[in-house]
Amino acid sequence: MPSTPPSLGTENQSPFQVDSRREIIGLLRGLKESKQLISMLINSGSEVFITSILDVDDSSNMVIIDSAPGQLANQRIIDAPRVSFEGLLDRISIQFSSSNLERIAFEDRPALQFAIPANMIRLQRREYYRINTPLSNPIRAMIPVQLDDRQETLKLALVDISCGGIAILDEKKVLDSTMGVIYEHCKLELPTIGLVDVVLQVRNSQDLVLLNGKSNRRLGCQFINMSNSVLASIQRYIMKLERERNAKLTGIR
């Protein structure tokens, strides 16, 4: 049964797509051996379950994973026309998908299996897929700062987001934009995901002159010491944005 990775957009997919069977098996086994948790998404990402790879059987062409908790959840996964998987291996995003998952028993425990995917997406550390955030309903980064003798939390709009960092707009130019400055205890408010805690390090700064003559400051910030669970949440949100963008481009509502 053929498997294809979740769509990342034609213009972005080819540089990151892995088609080598040997390499795909190596990545799957790497996820298994490092005991990485993997997000399993159905219904266009509206339902997310956490699983892990139990075995990669090259001879039978099968991947075996932990089943979801509960019979009803497993039935929904089995009934889903497409199941997407998102995981991290050495902080590199690995994404693939499959269909026709089957219930099995593996080492006396409930499990699911599916065919080894024909291809997958691997986003290298320096090639994090970056997507623009909505202008109509901006995502906010909440950054605590010391202003004179008081502590304030700035709420700044995001320009774009990736698994490696964000770009934000500091219209009033309040933040110290010196490269390397670290802002701790920050939060991102991601729609449908919720608040996630991040540490930001300024990597670049650019003052922009707008068409109306006003100026704005764009700061590129890198995530520092981020947990895999927070990275997985950001990854899910990026996939959600990409699905919405593709739906608009193809006219699907």
Question: How are the SSEs ordered, and which strands pair?
Answer:
Elements lengths: L9 H4 L3 E2 L2 H13 L4 E5 L4 E5 L1 E5 L4 E5 L4 H9 L3 E7 L2 E7 L3 E5 L2 E7 L4 E4 L7 E2 L7 E8 L2 E12 L3 E5 L12 E9 L3 E16 L5 E9 L4 H23 L3
What spatial form do the alpha-carbon principal axes imply? Answer: elongated
Portion in strands: 35-45%
Work out the helix count: 4
Largest sheet: 6 strands, antiparallel
Domain Type III secretion system flagellar brake protein YcgR PilZN: 16-122
Keywords: Bacterial flagellum, c-di-GMP, Cell projection, Cilium, Flagellum, Nucleotide-binding
Function: Acts as a flagellar brake, regulating swimming and swarming in a bis-(3'-5') cyclic diguanylic acid (c-di-GMP)-dependent manner. Binds 1 c-di-GMP dimer per subunit. Increasing levels of c-di-GMP lead to decreased motility.
Subcellular location: Bacterial flagellum basal body
